[in-house]
């Protein structure tokens, strides 16, 4: 998992409430057996019209926002189904963090597990950032996870809260597997003791 320490880049406002995971990653992009190619499906029905042409009014199709690494979103972002593809698609596009007032709980959990930082701010601060980033001349932000600060182009600084364990995992680039492997020596000792005390249960013994 890519560590998150300090990230700077452009931010795109997406203020609509209740943007669900089917909007983020439509179902037709869930057919693959790998995670590859999901950037193409991100916000597909918002980015393209029925004929496959780009919608010029969608924020990520506009100059100054195509390379956004932050989204400033509306409340209850990521609601709907629990599809993890929504998070993978955001990451493949280049999104490193989301800023909003509330996120759907399963979606938020998927974000943390995959190294995408969801930051919850008071609604008035989210609106401030959305208005600020609506101008491509001042939509650059810097997010410092260690100090839990968002630095804005106008000099404003906004503090955000994050669970200490989640924060440490993101700073270290540690996913759930990495967290488990920290205890690999203890797991091996437990396994050896378990089979020594119960040799008749050992799979190899059962095969013999």
What do you see in this structure?
With 208 residues, the chain is an alpha/beta fold. It folds into two domains: 6-173, Aconitase, domain 4 (Alpha-Beta Barrel); 175-208, no CATH class. Helices cover 35% and strands 16% of the residues. The chain has nine helices and seven strands, in the order βααβαβαβαβββαααα. The protein has helices at 21-24, 44-47, 85-93, 105-114, 123-133, 164-172, 176-181, 184-197, 203-207, and strands at residues 6-14, 70-73, 97-100, 117-120, 140-144, 149-152, 157-159. A seven-stranded mixed beta sheet has the order 4-3-2-1-5-6-7. α4 links the parallel β3 (97-100) and β4 (117-120). It is globular and about 70 Å long. The mean pLDDT is 93.
Write the layout of secondary structure elements.
Layout: E1 6-14, H1 21-24, H2 44-47, E2 70-73, H3 85-93, E3 97-100, H4 105-114, E4 117-120, H5 123-133, E5 140-144, E6 149-152, E7 157-159, H6 164-172, H7 176-181, H8 184-197, H9 203-207
Short description:
This protein has nine helices and seven strands. It has 208 residues and is an alpha/beta fold.
- Sequence of strands across the biggest β-sheet: 4-3-2-1-5-6-7
Low-confidence stretches: none
* CATH 2nd-level architecture of the largest domain: Alpha-Beta Barrel
Briefly note the structural class of the backbone: alpha/beta
How is the biggest beta sheet arranged?
Answer: 7 strands, mixed
Shape: globular
What portion of residues belong to β-strands?
Answer: 15-25%
- What Rg is obtained from the alpha carbons, in whole angstroms? 21 Å
């Amino acid at each position: 998992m890519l560590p998150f320490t300090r990230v700077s880049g452009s931010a795109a406002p997406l203020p609509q409430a209740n943007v669900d995971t089917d909007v983020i990653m439509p179902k037709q992009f869930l057919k693959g057996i790998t995670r590859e190619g999901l950037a193409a499906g991100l916000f597909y029905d918002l980015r393209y019209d029925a004929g496959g042409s780009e919608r010029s009014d969608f924020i990520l199709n506009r100059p100054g926002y195509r390379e956004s690494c932050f989204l400033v979103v509306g409340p209850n972002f990521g609601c709907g189904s629990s599809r993890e593809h929504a998070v993978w698609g955001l990451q493949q596009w280049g999104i490193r963090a989301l800023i909003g007032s509330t996120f759907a709980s399963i979606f938020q959990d998927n974000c943390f597990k995959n190294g995408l930082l969801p930051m919850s701010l008071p609604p008035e601060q989210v609106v401030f950032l959305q208005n600020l980033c609506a101008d491509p001349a001042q939509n650059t932000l810097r997010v410092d996870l260690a100090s839990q600060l968002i630095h804005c182009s106008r000099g404003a600084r906004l503090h955000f809260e994050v669970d200490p364990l989640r924060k440490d995992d993101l700073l270290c680039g540690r996913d759930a597997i990495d967290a488990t492997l920290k205890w690999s020596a203890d797991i091996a000792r437990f396994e050896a003791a378990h089979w020594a005390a119960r040799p008749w249960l050992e799979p190899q013994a059962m095969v013999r």
